[in-house]
Every structure is written in structure tokens, then in C-alpha cells.
């Protein structure tokens, strides 16, 4: 009984969808932003670009 409850709670807490439109858009934008021509972009600058793109996509 206790193990069933623990199993149920763990599935409830740790269950995350594997695919979402948001994550797919983020990876797609990442491929467009960081490519061979922009491979020297610092991670902080890349993070800022992703934040801006995600906010623009959220407004659509």
C-alpha cells in the first residue's frame, strides 16, 4: 500500500512531457542563432538572445 502511494506521488511529481511546442521552438531558434558563423558567441550573449526570442514568441 505504501509503495503504491509512493509510486503514485512520484509519477505525479516527476512526470514531465517529453515534447512540447515551447521546447521545440527553443531548440529550433537555438539552431538558427548559434551556427558555424556565430560559433564564438559567449554563452551569456546567447542566453540573452534566447530570452528575447522567447518573449517575442510568447507575445504572438
UniProtKB/TrEMBL annotation:
<keyword id="KW-0732">Signal</keyword>
<feature type="domain" description="HAT C-terminal dimerisation">
    <location>
        <begin position="12"/>
        <end position="52"/>
    </location>
</feature>
<feature type="signal peptide">
    <location>
        <begin position="1"/>
        <end position="18"/>
    </location>
</feature>
<dbReference type="GO" id="GO:0046983">
    <property type="term" value="F:protein dimerization activity"/>
</dbReference>
<dbReference type="InterPro" id="IPR008906">
    <property type="entry name" value="HATC_C_dom"/>
</dbReference>
<dbReference type="Pfam" id="PF05699">
    <property type="entry name" value="Dimer_Tnp_hAT"/>
</dbReference>
<protein>
    <recommendedName>
        <fullName>HAT C-terminal dimerisation domain-containing protein</fullName>
    </recommendedName>
</protein>
